[in-house]
């Protein structure tokens, strides 16, 4: 499938300074360009070119990084909370909240 096109039509104004003062010395010229949607007025050292672009949208897309991570089920180690840690968490929750909390083990595969 081809990429959709980004279309633009307008004017490219190219300016060359120093060309009238030094017509035979291109190394002394200075060039610049600007793009306009509507036809602009131009100075004596400028030329407006009507241009249209059709550029594939893919040109403007940044690289997309993609990662796939797969963890085999047999490499997962079940979490085991020892009784002392469980008691400490229950005590801390009771002290902070005033609620009597009982932590129960849960089988993660159910």
Q: How do the helices and strands follow one another from N- to C-terminus?
A: EEEH
Question: What topology, given as strand order, has the largest sheet?
Answer: 2-1-3
**End-to-end CA span:** 44 Å
Q: Please tally the helical runs, counting DSSP H or I stretches of 4 or more residues.
A: 1
Number of strands: 3
Shape, principal axes of CA atoms: elongated
Fill in the keyword field for this structure.
single chain; 110 residues; alpha+beta; 1 helix
Give a short overview.
The protein has 1 helix and 3 strands.
Overview of this structure, please?
The protein is α+β, with helices and mostly antiparallel strands and 110 residues long. 14% of the residues lie in helices and 28% in strands. It contains 1 helix and 3 strands, in the order βββα. The protein has one helix at residues 83-97, and strands at 5-17, 30-36, 46-56. A 3-stranded antiparallel sheet has the order 2-1-3, with no helix packed on it. It starts with a strand and ends in a 13-residue tail after the last helix.
Topology, element by element:
Layout: E1 5-17, E2 30-36, E3 46-56, H1 83-97
Antiparallel strand pairs: 1-2, 1-3
């Amino acid at each position: 499938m081809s990429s959709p096109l980004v279309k633009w039509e307008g004017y490219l104004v190219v300016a060359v300074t120093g060309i009238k003062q030094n017509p035979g010395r291109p190394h002394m010229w200075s060039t610049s360009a600007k793009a306009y949607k509507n036809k602009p007025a131009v100075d004596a050292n400028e030329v407006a070119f009507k241009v249209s672009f059709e550029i594939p949208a893919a040109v403007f897309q940044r690289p997309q990084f993609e990662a796939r991570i797969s963890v085999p089920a047999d490499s997962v180690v079940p979490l085991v909370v020892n009784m002392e840690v469980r008691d400490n968490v229950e005590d801390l929750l009771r002290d902070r909240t005033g609620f009597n909390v009982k932590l129960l083990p849960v089988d993660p595969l159910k």
